Amino acid sequence: MAAISGGTFVPLYGAVDKKPVKVAPFQLDVYPVTNAQYLAFLKKYPEYSRSKIKGLFADKSYLYQWESDFSFGKDNLSNAPVTNVSWFAAKKYCECQGKRLPTMDEWEFVGMADEKRIDARTKEEFNKYIMSWYEKPSTYANPVGKTFKNYWGVYDMHGLVWEWTADFNSIFLSGESRKDKDTDKNLFCGSGSVNATDLMNYAAFMRYAFRGSLKARYTTKNLGFRCAKDKKNSVNTTKKQNNETKNSMPKNKK
Questions:
Q1: How far apart are alpha carbons 204 and 108 in whole angstroms?
Q2: Beta strands in the chain (DSSP E)
Q3: Which of 62, 68, 207, 253 has the fewest beta carbons closer than 10 A?
């Protein structure tokens, strides 16, 4: 996993009065989850295999490109990103690794970086690269790690697959997580540009529109995921606990 030190940025949607939102330090998988990694997960949790998963948690396209429950087949690379996985299944996978899905703000914060800059959204060539990917067919079949390594040391944020986030449709269904006062029903279709902070960020428009079209049980051939994790504070926590224990011990009376 890559260590993301966190910071502030203004997302395309959701910031109150267009002020920056804060992203706390966290960790993010360097690569999307692969077919081989997901197969290992299914062998431990067969209830999430293609024939066993409940319809409540995944639609009929769940892992349809695989050969069988426990074989992704010869036509799918072991190190290609797993796709046709629902939000429920992706969330379960991350939890079983002691991780979680990244939030939308976390994903966008890391995704706005190019090779050298934390925020490359104003660079024309960066946005052209993302938009050109949207036009390429079947990039989901490519192996992970073949796109550029960004400022944080993370690969494949753009150029391979779309990715699930923990709160993927919060902007479209409820503004509560971003402290909006009301649900904004004007984010769909052409009126989606009304409350955007950057009308020229078409690449981000595409991501937000795609996320807003999803339900948690949906699966698509170009949608995968990666996991995140809160930053470890084990050293500081241990020191604090030791100090608290020391202070709570009765002092010897002379």
A1: 9
A2: 2-4, 7-9, 21-23, 26-28, 162-163, 223-224, 228-230
A3: 253
Predicted confidence at residue 229, as pLDDT, reads: 98
Task: Give average pLDDT by consecutive 10-residue segment, the chain, 254 residues.
Answer: 95 68 96 98 98 97 97 96 98 98 96 96 90 90 96 97 91 45 43 47 77 91 97 51 44 45
d(CA 153, CA 4): 9
Element (H, E) at 130: helix 124-134
Cα–Cα distances (Å) from 245 to 38, 234, 238, 241, 249, in that order, read: 43, 16, 10, 6, 6
Biggest distance spanned by C-alpha atoms of the chain? 80
Q: How far is CA 213 from CA 48, 90, 189, 203, 208, in A?
A: 24, 18, 11, 16, 9
Torsion angle of alpha carbons 53, 56, 57, 63, nearest 10°? Answer: 60
Residue 224 phi/psi, 5-degree rounding, is -125, -150
Nearest partner of 40 among 95, 90, 85, 93, judged by Cα: 93
Instruction: Enter the tokens of residue 87.
Output: 């939000």
73: left (phi over 0), alpha (psi -120 to 50) or beta: left
**Neighbour tally for 35: CB within 10 Å:** 24
Evaluate whether 12 touches 202 at the Cβ level (below 8 Å): no
64 phi, psi to nearest 5 deg = -65, -25
pTM, two decimals, is 0.81
Helix and strand counts by DSSP (H, E) for the chain: 7, 7
**Six-digit token pair at 209?**
């529109």
Closest CA to 159 of 100, 192, 114: 114
